[in-house]
Amino acid sequence: MANLYHAYGLTFASEIELPELALAPDASQPPQVQISLGAVPPQGLAGGRQISPFIWVADGQFWLEVPDIARFLVRDGAQIVVQPAPSIDMASVRVFLLGSGLGALLFQRGLLVLHGNAIEMGQGCLVCVGPSGVGKSTLTAAFMQRGYRVLADDVVPINDQGMAIPGFGRIKLWQDVADRLQISTDGLQRIRPQLEKFNLPLGDAFCDSPRKVVQICLLSEHLDDDITQSPVTGIEKFTLLRANTYRQRFMAGMALQPQHLQQCGALAGQVAITRVARPKSGFRIDDLVDALAAQMQGAR
User: For the residues of the chain, what is the DSSP string, one character each?
Assistant: First the structure.
């Protein structure tokens, strides 16, 4: 029997237990997305095309294999079929289902999807983007400790009105990040059994309502001791949004570039974008939170 969950403004009927997601508030409403366990073709998609060793695409379809974990088939923004590898733990399957699988589905549903984190500020939100490992989740957890609410971690879908759509109420933290922020990981669920990375439930710090994207921060690191900020203007705003799209090759492979270019152009005209570089050694997290909060206040 399928369980009903809610995330990204959608109701999911899932044959896979998804403890990271909230239960659907109204079980009488028909689900928009079905997640089922079943057979996924082992050799890609008939009539499709291969865009990487483990990804195939066709009209309205996305096929992904994660070796020794699972194969996934995402169809028409409404269905995900999952075939786990034998004897694999389901926590490992969920990592890729809730990341790449849902990312592909959100693209199919016509959303702009950024690789970043979204933090509520007032009636709007700040979206922090940047390469993996630069500190987006660290920054998000630090904002949470200051009393701010979080909309999304890693996958930030944005609709045509420039609103960030909330994901689900957890952020992922490596053990060293939790130690830096003095967050105990005792009792927290590892995202995969062999990783020192944990799901941190947000509880009341989760913002479950869409918020207008007011500011986008491109976070990077440098060798200086100071935190530097510089505004992004003109065509560079558009280029930055394209470059920080979640799993960009998924979108390109599904031939969604025309829609994506239009979405990037529209959002670039609506939001302020700033490059923020923090010291590579010595995160200075409190100073970084202060600087971004002040910047957000000025942008509203």
Answer: -PEEEEETTEEEEESS--TTSEEPS-TTSPPSEEEEE----TT--TT-EEEETTEEEETTEEEEEETTTEEEEEETTTEEEEEEPTT--HHHHHHHIIIIIHHHHHHHTT-EEEEEEEEEETTEEEEEE-STTSSHHHHHHHHHHTT--EEEEEEEEE-TTSEEPP--SEEEEEHHHHHHTT---TTPEESSTTSSEEEEE-GGGB--S-EEEEEEEEEEEESSSS-EEEEE-THHHHHHHHHTBTTHHHHHHTT-HHHHHHHHHHHHTTSEEEEEEEESSS--HHHHHHHHHHHHHHH-
- Residue 23 CB neighbours (<10 A): 10
CA atoms within 13 A on the CB side of 77: 11
The C-alpha atoms of residue 233 and residue 220 are separated, in whole angstroms, by 17
The pLDDT of residue 294 is 85
Higher pLDDT, 26 or 53: 53
The whole-number pLDDT of residue 298 equals 63
Strands 211-222 and 124-129: parallel
How far is Cα 164 from Cα 123, in angstroms, rounded to an integer? 12
Whole-angstrom distance, CA of residue 218 vs CA of residue 236: 12
Cβ proximity of 88 and 70 under 8 Å:
yes
Q: At what angle do helices 257-268 and 235-243 cross, to 10 degrees?
A: 130
Q: How many whole angstroms separate alpha carbon 131 and alpha carbon 134?
A: 6
CA distance 125 to 212: 6
Higher pLDDT, 158 or 123: 158
Average pLDDT, the chain: 93
Rounded CA separation 207/68 (Å): 35
Tell me, what's the pLDDT at 300?
A: 55
Strands 10-14 and 3-7: antiparallel
